[in-house]
Amino acid sequence: MDVPQSAVPSLVDSLLLESTPPQRPPRPPLPAVDASTPVGRAVAGFYLAFEAVDHADRIREAANWPARQGGAGSREKYLALAHGITTVEQIRGRARSRLRELGATATRTAQFLAQCSVDHPSDIDAAVNVALRHEETIVGDTAVRQINAQTRAVLDLDETTAAVSVHDWLTRHGLRHM
Q: What is this structure's pTM?
C-alpha cells in the first residue's frame, strides 16, 4: 500500500537550498527614441513608465524574497510589461510604415499632377504638402493614443505609479509638447 506523500517537505527542502532570491531576466535595452515628435515623446513616456514599474517590482521582489511574497503576481507583471513593449513596438512600426507610404504616395501624386499641369507647380506642391501633413497628423495622433493606452496599462501595474495620469507622467518627464 502506497503512503501519500506530502509536498511540504520537498518545498521546505527547495527553500532551504535557495540561498539567494530568484533572478528575473535582465531588462531589455531600451531603444533610442526621438523625443522631438509626439509619437517619440509617447514612446519615451511608455519606456519611462516601464522602467519605473519594473524597478519598483525588482526592489519589492528582493525585499519580499525571504517571505516568498513576490511569486505569481511578479510573473504576471513581468509578462504584462513584456506584452506592453511588444505592443508599443508594433504600434511604432505600423506608424513608421504608414508614414513612409504616405510620403511615397504624396511624391507620386505631386509628380503626376505636375505632369498634367504646367500652371503653378508650386501651388500643386503646397496642396500636396498640406494634405500630407494632415494625414501624418492623423497617423501620429492615433499612434500616440495607442501608446498612451499601453503606458496607462503599465502605470497601473504598480501602486506607486497607478494614481499618476499619463498626461502628468509625460509632463513630469518633460515629454509633453508645449
A: 0.66
